[in-house]
Specification:
Elements: H1 3-20, E1 25-26, H2 30-39, E2 43-49, H3 53-66, E3 75-80, H4 85-94, E4 104-109, E5 112-117, H5 127-141
Parallel strand pairs: 1-3, 2-3
Antiparallel strand pairs: 2-4, 4-5
Helix pairs in contact: 2-4, 3-5
Length: 142
Amino acid sequence: MHPYEQYMKEISMPMRKELTEAGFKELTTAEEVDQFVNDMEGTSLVVVNSVCGCAAGLARPAVRESLESDNRPENLVTVFAGQDREATARMREYFEGIEPSSPSIALMKEGKVLHFIPREEIEGHEIEDIVTNLDNAYKQYS
């Protein structure tokens, strides 16, 4: 492994754990993404994780807090932009008509995006606003 890749893998570990410890399953290959989408039952929260500051300070904390909702999605998965490139690219193919954005959060059902929060609705916003955005989507689509 190239030294840069090794460094990025090591630096991203706590960022990955922040979601996996909250119950998210990491999808690291395109095949895992396809299998997940094809087998998807119920609602799914998909987080496109990132090493950027708005992922650390806003997206991940907001997602974790949103899971306290009674209407939380049945499935929790994540792909890591810039790290698991094939998995991220494949997941983005399922986000039909939506520009790539990281971090971003998608609420999906039956392989289709029901609600999408791009970076523009994360960066510069308050955690509470993102949690409310997610909770409203959970209520609408549960």
